[in-house]
Amino acid sequence: MSVQPIVNETAKLSAPAAPPDYARLVQGDRVHTSLYVDPTIFAAEMDKIFANTWVWVAHASEIPEPGNFKTAHVGSQPVIVTRGPDGRVHVLLNRCRHRAGSVCEQGHGKASVFVCPYHGWSYDLTGRLRGVPHAGGYDESFDKNDYPLVSLRVEEYAGLIFASLRPDIQPLDAHLGRARKWIDLFMKQGAGFPIKAGGAHRFRFRGNWKIQLENTTDAYHFPIVHRSFLTSLDDETEKVFDVLGQGGWVEDLGNGHSVMVMIPDRVDLEQNLDAPIPERFQALADELAVEHPPEQVRRIVRAVGGSGFNVNIFPNIACSMAFFRVLRPVAVDETEITHMAITMDGGPRAANRARLRLHEHFQGPMGFGSPDDADVWERVQRGAAAGRDLWVMLNRGKERDVSAETGMRAAYQMWTRMMTA
Amino acid sequence: MSGPLLEPAPGITLQEATEFIWLEADLLDTQDYAAWLALWTTAGRYVIPIERTGDDHADRLNVVYDDRPMREARVQRLQSGLSTSANPSARTVRTVSRFRALEARDGAVRLRCAQHLVEYKYERTRTLAADVSYRLVRTGAGGGAGDGARAAGSIALDEKVIRLINSDDALFGMGYLL
User: Fold this and answer.
1) In a domain, B148, yes or no
2) A329 touches chain B (CB under 8 A)
3) Measured between beta carbons, which residues in chain B are less than 8 angstroms from residue A356?
4) Which CATH number does A55-157 carry?
5) Are the beta carbons of A401 and A261 closer than 8 angstroms?
6) Is the pLDDT of residue A6 over 90?
7) Nearest CA to CA, how far is B83 from chain A (Å)?
8) Is there a contact between A199 and B178 if contact means CB atoms under 8 Å apart?
9) What is the pLDDT of residues A23-40, one digit of tens each?
10) How many domains does chain B have?
11) A351 CA to chain B: closest CA distance, Å?
């Protein structure tokens, strides 16, 4: 991006267009259609938002031991998330410092060294350049210390690992702010066991990343888009998922974060432990009762059902009911979604199986919910090709109404703050 | 994987197994899901794993891990008219070939084959390739399989595992059955 254009004497280059007036494109209760379709806005978002804040890259349990790594993205930039020999987490740009080859193409694994396949430069888990083949071909000023893999800022909260390309970024705690309380509540679904990433569904849709960002706090769509999911449930469970009818609400948590509470009874999974076991979990409860005391059975069964809220952390991660929901912007009209299942590390096998089956029921490319979400999101992108001067409306919402578009307005407020900074 | 080629189970020839699987493919492409459900044994398992290797599907996250009630619920959902991804779904055309019998025992045959599926929706054509393994069993009179199985010569589907070539990469929403 900082490369100077080659000036061609004969073909006169047109002057670069002035950047869009971002503040005018977001007007409190509406956003301009160009936010979904304009590639120049997308490119600016990668710089001004994704390269400029904390971006979620991993859950700590994905890289439990020294040498474990996974690959991820910070905006459009591929990174490797590693656990070094001393247990510290490193987030490194996945690009050889010699001629830019990617040094890792595995989704996850264990390694002590990353080797670029082109000329064999090798790096350790902290990003340090270890080996350069035929180093004698460089002059005496060549110093391996000058060419580590580029390292990002890394901080962790409650097992959520975030990275930032901005060295002077504010501490993660300050960025998360009031969202931390909700993250803490969310992590109670381990029922006393540590939370563990239990595998993930990944899928892409042809649509802008903000369509997914909005959806995380959109209760309004649930009974419409997910009617076929709701009708697949028993009557008791269908009532639990009557998300508009339980007095839920949406709260702006600051910094673009928000929470949507759909099932108030399931805000704190360590309360109401005396409530009767739902019929759909009775078989699980009976199985657990063989090896666990009654209080523990109730706690585990309640946790298996998941939390009753989505906390949306701007810009790319949500703790959503019973799973982690990660978005990755690929292009202005393409987004990759990861739905990471959560299990109890060391918890009862039957309970973890139940959690995996519940996740498969709704999530994934053939779940009873996600394909319908993906379909309507593509319809949004297709529709946004019409009426380029029209606005996307976010004006729904009274106070304490779960279907209010409060969370979306909060996200776009942060979007404007970052894009105009 | 590298063992000698085995004869199909007594009573199920490779030709019969192949015809059964072609019938199944046709039922899926034409979305005759009621007939497809009837191909299965009561205990049959329909699996689309995420990890390409290993058989311990129950303790891992899958795309699909269906017992009979989930298969029936899945079909009901796809045909309910309430799901936008399935109403209409993408159109599909699939070809199944490269059949190889792996094991024949106790009146059952396990075989592996290749599936190429092409889907079309929203002005876009996409392909999905998969290794598919089947366990087919011969059912006697009243053996639990329905009309579809009887039509295919009393063979029933006891296990189908679809290992997509890109199962551990990002996929896309599918409003049909593999």
Assistant:
1) yes
2) no
3) 59-62, 65
4) 2.102.10.10
5) no
6) no
7) 6
8) no
9) 999 998 999 999 999 999
10) 1
11) 10
Asked if the C-beta of A372 comes within 8 angstroms of chain B's C-beta atoms, the answer is yes
Is residue A7 very low, low, confident or very high in pLDDT (cuts 50, 70, 90)?
A: very low
By mean pLDDT, which of A11-15, A393-397, B164-168 is the weakest?
A: A11-15
A-B CB pairs within 8 A amount to 98
A352 with B77: Cβ contact below 8 A: no
Residues within 8 A of B (CB atoms), A 337-356 only: 341, 349, 352-353, 356
Residue A198 with chain B: CB contacts under 8 Å: 61
Show the domain range for B147: 14-164
* B60/A356 Cβ within 8 A: yes
* Sheet strand arrangement including A77-83: A89-93, A77-83, A68-74, A108-110
Among candidates A199, A364, A366 on the partner chain, residue whose Cβ is nearest the Cβ of B60: A199
Residue labelled with tokens 């009911």? A321
Confidence of residue A16 (pLDDT cuts 50, 70, 90): low
- C-alpha radius of gyration, chain A, whole number: 23
The interface predicted TM-score of the complex, written ipTM, equals: 0.93
Cite the residue boundaries of each domain of chain A with CATH code 2.102.10.10: 55-157
What are the phi and psi torsion angles at A405 (to 5°)? -90, 30
Interatomic CA distance for residues A204 and A377, integer angstroms: 11
Domain with CATH 3.90.380.10 in chain A: 178-419
Please answer yes or no on whether B172 and A204 come within 8 Å at the CB atom. yes
Per-residue pLDDT of chain B (178 residues; tens, 9 = 90+): 444 555 554 579 999 999 999 999 999 999 999 999 999 999 999 999 999 999 999 999 999 999 999 999 999 999 999 999 999 999 999 999 999 999 988 789 999 999 999 999 999 999 999 999 999 999 864 444 444 444 444 899 999 999 999 999 999 999 999 9
- What CATH number is given for A178-419 in this structure? 3.90.380.10
- Give the tens place of pLDDT for each residue, A295-321: 999 999 999 999 999 999 999 999 999
* pLDDT value of residue A191: 96
SS3 A317: strand
Q: Which of A206, A327, A360 to mutate to test the interface with B (most CBs of B within 10 A)?
A: A360
Q: Are A205 and A317 in contact (CB under 8 A)?
A: no
Q: Which residues of A touch B61 (CB under 8 A)?
A: 198-201, 341, 356, 359-360
Q: Is the pLDDT of residue A15 over 70?
A: no
What is residue B147's predicted lDDT score, i.e. its pLDDT? 47
Residue B65 neighbours by CB under 8 Å, 6+ apart: A356, A357, A360, B45, B46, B47, B48, B57, B58
Residue A201 has its nearest CB partner, among B63, B73, B122, at B63
Q: Are A250 and A402 in contact (CB under 8 A)?
A: yes
CATH number at residue B19: 3.10.450.50
Q: Please return the burial class of A236, using the count of CB atoms within 10 Å of its CB with bins 0-12, 13-18 and 19+.
A: exposed
Largest CA distance in chain B: 49
Cross-chain residue pair A205–B172, CB shorter than 8 Å: yes
pLDDT confidence tier of residue A3, bands split at 50, 70 and 90:
very low
Residues of chain A neighbouring B124 (CB-CB closer than 8 A) = 206
Nearest to A203 among B76, B168, B172 (CB): B172
Structure tokens at A18: 């002035």
Interface contact flag, B173 A357, Cβ < 8 Å:
no
